[in-house]
Amino acid sequence: MSSLNSINIHQSPPxxxxxxxxxxxxxxxxxxxGVVEELKKLTTSVAHVLxxxxxxxSTAEIVRVLGGPAVGxxxxxxxxxxxxxxxxxxxxxxxxGYRLPLDAQEAKLEWYSIVEGEHxxxxxxxxxxxxxxxxxxxxxxxxxxxxxxxxxxxxxxxxTYLRDVRLLKSxxxxxxxxxxxxxxxxxxxxxxxxxxxxxxxxxQIPTESLVLPVISTNDRLTLGCELWDGTIIRGQNxxxxxxxxxxxxxxxxxxTVNPSVxxxxxxxxxxxxxxxxxxxxxxxxxxxxxxxEIIASRSCAKVLLLNGTYDRETxxxxxxxxxxxxxxxxxxxxxxxxxxxxxxSEYINTVFVPKDSxxxxxxxxxxxxGIVNVVDVESMHDPKxxxxxxxxxxxxxxxxxxxxxxxxxx
Length: 410
Description:
Strand order of the largest sheet: 1-10-9-8-7-2-3-4
CATH topology of the largest domain: Rossmann fold
CATH class of the largest domain: Alpha Beta
Largest sheet: 8 strands, parallel
Distance between the termini: 29 Å
Number of helices: 15
Structural class: alpha/beta
Number of domains: 2
Strand content: 5-15%
CATH architecture of the largest domain: 3-Layer(aba) Sandwich
């Protein structure tokens, strides 16, 4: 019988930290953000694969008004990866992460001050950066005003910029922020990839760090799910924070995955399923055609970072339930039978568990699925979400794992 292994968090990271391993990480927009800074100390050669179906908060309003894919999670990860080594880099990071006031009138005045280049946020930002970012903020503003004017003539309604198109919300969690700049760039280039490239360069993200939308599209995407009783729930936010499901027709499709994701999967040293919302953040990226086939063919480390706390999507789940959900997504179990692929151990060969996790680790069930390497990692308590990984310990555990894989290969 396998037992839960504990790593020694007082042990120095192994020499593998100097090998600059390459990783591909499937994650959502927020759960892994707290680990990004520590991960840079191990390697910056990381492909961050993110969904583009978020429809909550201010992202929902941008998508509702302007259409296109959701860019909120992508902006959030780009911000975390941005450079902080100079005063200008810090100023750009502060600018791109800034949140407007909750009061609509204050937000409007401050917005115009930013767009016109007069706000104190621009103080340490050089002219080339300032004019580049301002151009896309102004473009975003013009697009919103054009829509407002169209609706004014069509429905004889009055619109106040930002307020009546509801890009500002009434709660702290949902107020508008500088995802607007990326939205403006996406509209201008008619390409999400081009917008990501621009902001990667503007915020000086390491060139070997990639932020990849799992689906490369300029269209709006809506996530849906079907319950066992036949109820269809439409929208990522509705799935995670349900109010009421409704029976409706839904086209079941497997969209084309971003080719860059498949390319990275073929070459990285380690594939990681990050912590986060299992069914609305992780699985939507795994169900796409080609993802399961490539992962099953690789002999590299394949790591599941188990959540530390239950959420609305995983109440009552054990560790093996997470493995089953991921395997079902990669196997496309609920699609055509001829798409079914491999066993769980072909997709996951290591499970990391935060100490004191609410999720029970059913060792026997995991072993029956061929997963025997279970690693216990130090945790800490986050007042907003509960038990999470202690970032330094998590990266040390990952370094230890990759060092072992390197030694076996050599």
